[in-house]
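Data card: per-record layout.
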Amino acid sequence: MSSLSQEQQSLLSSYSSEQRFNYCVKEIAQFKQVWILTDDDGCVMLNTEEEDCVPVWPNEAFANQWANEEWQHCKALAIEITEWKKKWTPGLLDDDLCLVVFPNLDNEGVISFPDDFELALNKKLK
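The structure for this 126-residue chain is written out next.
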C-alpha cells in the first residue's frame, strides 16, 4: 500500500459513498488485500435496518480510523484477496451477510452483496 498523507486521507474520506467504493475496489485489486477490523470475537459488524454488514476498507489506515470509542480494542487485519475469494465471499453468502464498502466515520458507505463485491474486484483485476 502506498502511504497516504493526512490531507489525502481527509480528501478520500470526503468522497461520496460511490466514489469511496470505486477507490476501495481499485486499491484492493492493486494491493491484493481487503482490510477489516477484528477483536477476540471475530470481525466487526455494522447493522442497518435491513442488513448485517461486515465493513471493509482499502488499507490499514482507514480501518484503524474506526478503531476508536466502542471499537478501540479492535485491530486492523489484512486478508489476502485469494483467501477473500476462496473463504470470505462464500462464508458471507452462507451467513446471509453483506459488506459495507469503505464506510466513512459518519457510517456512510455502499452496501454490497459479497458476490457483487467480488465481481467488481474481478473486473478491476483484469
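Known properties of this structure: The CA atoms of residues 43 and 95 lie 13 Å apart. The two ends are 19 Å apart (CA to CA).

See the next section for split statistics.
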